[in-house]
Structures are given as C-alpha cells and as structure tokens.
Amino acid sequence: MPRRKQDPEGSSGGRERLLRAAVHQFAAKGYAATTVRGILREAGVSAPVLYYHFGSKEGLFLALVREGAGKLEAAAHAALTRPGDAATRIRGYCRAIAEVRREYANLTWTVEAILSGPREAAPRFDFVRVFTDSLQRLEDLVRQGVASGELRPCDPRHAALACLGAVEMTARMRTVQPTGVTDDDDLDAMLSLILDGLAAGRR
Fold it and tell me: Which of 6, 34, 36, 138 is the most exposed place for a label (fewest CB within 10 A)?
C-alpha cells in the first residue's frame, strides 16, 4: 500500500476551508452541479489538498454528512439518557435533533435532492437509516410513556412522526427565513400541542 503524501497545507487549515466551501457550494448548487474546481476556488486551496484529505468530491460530501450524523447520534444519546418524565424526555430528544439540524441546515436541500434523484448517482451513505433510527428512538420514548401511564394509548409511530414533523418544520423555517426565527420557541409550541394531546387523562 503506497504511503500517503505529506499534507500540502498543514494538518487542518486546508481541510477546514474545504469543508466550509463545500457546504456553501452544495447548498447553492446541489451535489451534482457542484464541481471540484468551484470548491477549490472558494476554499483558496489546490487540488492536492482536497485529494489528500477527502480523495474526491464524494469523499468531501461524505465527511460532512458523517460529521452531522455523528453529532446527531451523540445528541440523541445525551437526550435519551437524561432523567425526566415521558414528555420531558420526548421534548429534550426533539430539541437535540433540532439543534443539529439547524447547524447543518444548509445541507438540507442537497440531501433531499439526492434522496429524490437516481440512487446510482448518489453518494454512498445510508440517509434512510439516519431517519429510521431517529423515528425508532421516538417511538420507543412514546411507547415507554404509554406503558408508564403518562401518555394515553396511541400508535407510537404516529406520535413519533408528528414530533419529527415539528422538528422538520423548524429546520425548514431556518432555510427559508434564516434570520429572526425563534426556533426553540416554535418547536416547543408545536411539541406542546402534540404532547398535551397525548397526555393521559386529557381529551
């Protein structure tokens, strides 16, 4: 196996500039229309820097989505292990997801375009698994709340989808209205409507 060449721009400077430029380029043009040349021009680095750190445009994109997925996993674990009643844990989990989604809001449209396009042209990343894992965790939280008597009997999947819908709407508001949006207030208000309806003893 050939040895990797010396990093042409130090350990991190070129890499971070490439990541920032890639987020902007992917968000503005989509994955397919974004070119390596455009990313390099915006980042102000040469092609060997990209190839050293990421290998290709696909490698650069995958680095971004894997970073986001890792943060989502860490935020989910922290929220799920936090003590509290069912409603508090559901709310905390949704807020944790929303915080990561806000951080990566500029990639939202890129990912959606990839999911709706031909799979053979898409980067090799299991986006569906990230969604299904989030849904499953919320279903489990709702199921636990029903079992404890805190939440009224319901279909856990439907309740989880409603909560994820609230998260999705706050993320979309950030992409179409990036300033003056009170994300947490909007999310908490929507979750309150859902969780009040699920509270045991309420009609």
Answer: 6
